[in-house]
Design brief:
The protein is an alpha/beta fold. It has helices at residues 24-35, 60-68, 91-101, 159-164, 168-196, and strands spanning 2-3, 15-18, 44-49, 76-79, 105-115, 122-127, 146-154. It has one domain: 3-Layer(aba) Sandwich (Rossmann fold), CATH 3.40.50.1450. The protein has 5 helices and 7 strands. Strands 1, 2, 3, 4, 5, 6 and 7 form a 7-stranded mixed β-sheet that branches. α2 (60-68) links the parallel β3 (44-49) and β4 (76-79). The protein is globular, with a radius of gyration of 16 Å. This is Spore protease YyaC. InterPro entries: Pept_HybD-like_dom_sf (IPR023430), YyaC (IPR009665).
Length: 208
Amino acid sequence: MNLRTNSAFMKNRQEAFCYIHPDAHVSLVSAINRHLPKEADAYSIVIVCIGTDRSTGDALGPLVGMHLRQYTLNNTHIYGTLDQPVHAVNLQNTMEEVQAMHDHPFIIAVDACLGHRHHVGKVCVSEGPVRPGSGVNKKLPPVGDMNITGIVNLSGYMEYAVLQNTRLSLVMKLSRAISRSLYIALFSREKRSILTGRPFSDDSAHSL
């Protein structure tokens, strides 16, 4: 669980999309592709879905991981599901395992987020790492070459209580939007690379 401030929207090429917008998945797929490495075969894609099923608001990451496990993607590895969550206790060991198991991994971090009331329900895509635990004042190692976060509730007061009282329906909708967009982006990139031998262009998202 991390924290998204107003100033954060101005940094790190961050893009935000409301999941209920009719074209949200197209915009989200394009944003994901803009942050992925252009050489499709040069990196293993590792998606680290951070969070725990013991807290409704913080279950976003594990739910995304669970949905992604239902898809088949070559050279893509998923860490963090409802059954095997990646959280504060095992995050360091998980990242050590990722580095040991995969050559040149490109890591996509997925996490829930607290933010301004006008941003609740938005999905944010940005370059660079996410800082897990910042939303509840925990200091954990940064994770990711890029990150995708879903803003599940308000920040600023009683963060643990806020997480426990987050609407499950919102978390489920955000998890489906993120997992579907990730799948489309990665599958399209993989398919285009196989068929043409060329790097993926985010324009392909509009043809799906």
